[in-house]
Amino acid sequence: PELKRKRFSQTILDAAKPFLSARADRFMLELELFLASGLNIEAYDSVYLQRLGWNEPIVLSVANEEDL
User: Fold this and answer.
1) pTM of the entire structure?
2) 20 near 27, Cβ under 8 Å?
3) Domain ranges of the chain
4) Exposure pattern of 10-48 as b/e (b: 16+ CB <10 Å)?
5) Which of 11, 38, 51, 63 is paired with 30 by a 20 to 30 Å CA distance?
6) How far is Cα 56 from Cα 52, in angstroms, rounded to an integer?
């Protein structure tokens, strides 16, 4: 199981590095924590935000052309 986990982690890390550069290691850590939690993404985000002490997620929006 440990060898499979390491191979999986390395495969994901290799795939993520071209897109995330220096943050790929952090992404892999967060992905492992998420997968180990057994939660769906909404539940995981909720727990994560609670741990940060945030009440609700910060939503960033993209401006429409009309708004510019």
Assistant:
1) 0.64
2) yes
3) 2-57
4) eeeeeebeeeeeeebeeebeeeeeeeeeeeeeeebeeeb
5) 63
6) 10
